[in-house]
Amino acid sequence: MSNLALAVRDSSTMLRRNLLHARRYPSLTLNLLLTPIMLLLLFVYIFGDTMSAGIDGGGADRSAYIAYLVPGLLLMTIGSTTIGTAVSVSNDMTEGIIARFRTMAIHRGSVLVGHVIGSVLQSIISVVLVGAVGVAIGFRSTDATVLEWLAAFGLLALFALALTWIAVGMGLVSPNAEAASNNAMPLIFLPLISSTFVPVDAMPGWFQPIAEYQPFTPAIETLRGLLLGTEIGHNGWLALAWCLGLAVLGYRWSTAKFNQDPK
């Protein structure tokens, strides 16, 4: 069997393994998924009218704030879901299964590939669920073309891939599952200080660079532009650069750490 065929076969096996784990132990994924859903309902129904009036400078319009909020929370959902990946990878490294895999005639990289593909699939499913909640409470994207919807889906998938590789690296360097969960907390914290809830120019001047120069804000603004027809500007290129940069960094970090001989 060629190296490529071996890699595909073993990666498929590891993917099935991770999906079975997610199905048998769904509590972690569900708990992480509840965070963006609860924030969506909280900000729409408790703060929606007030936030909308502040952003638009006019009357309260909860539907306008739903449209503004949902794209940011879709990307926050990806960050939340990938925390589960860091925990899962850390569990594999500390419970001895990786040591067993190293003694078997399987493609070495298939273990990480299975985690990554499984996490991206879970992220996309989580995004669909949060998006469905958004649609149920009033989110609409009437102006987006089919091409823009495809571009939006591609952005979400690429963003999920980039954050997943970073989460895998965090799981590999963590001594236990609790540490992995704590190390991956920036993946939830960064969306909170981005343009998810309010525009960057509405923030205090000293805080604006923190919100602007990070991966979530350009991705959020790009997704808003694709779904709502707002101005994208340079955010599209910045979002693409962040995604590719994080994916390459996470991949190199993860593979280098995984290939180290165990101590």
UniProtKB/TrEMBL annotation:
Entry annotated with the keyword Cytoplasm: no
Membrane topology designation: Multi-pass membrane protein
Alphabetized UniProt keyword annotations: Antibiotic resistance, Cell membrane, Membrane, Transmembrane, Transmembrane helix, Transport
Subcellular location: Cell membrane; Membrane
Chief place of localization: membrane
Superkingdom classification of source: Bacteria
Pfam families cross-referenced by the UniProt entry: ABC2_membrane (PF01061)
Residue span, ABC transmembrane type-2 domain: 27-261
InterPro entries listed in its UniProt record: ABC2_TM (IPR013525), ABC2_TM_bact-type (IPR047817), ABC_2_transport (IPR000412), Nod_factor_ABC_transporter (IPR051784)
Residues annotated as transmembrane: 25-46, 66-90, 111-137, 149-173, 185-207, 236-254
Family: Belongs to the ABC-2 integral membrane protein family.
Protein name per the record: Transport permease protein
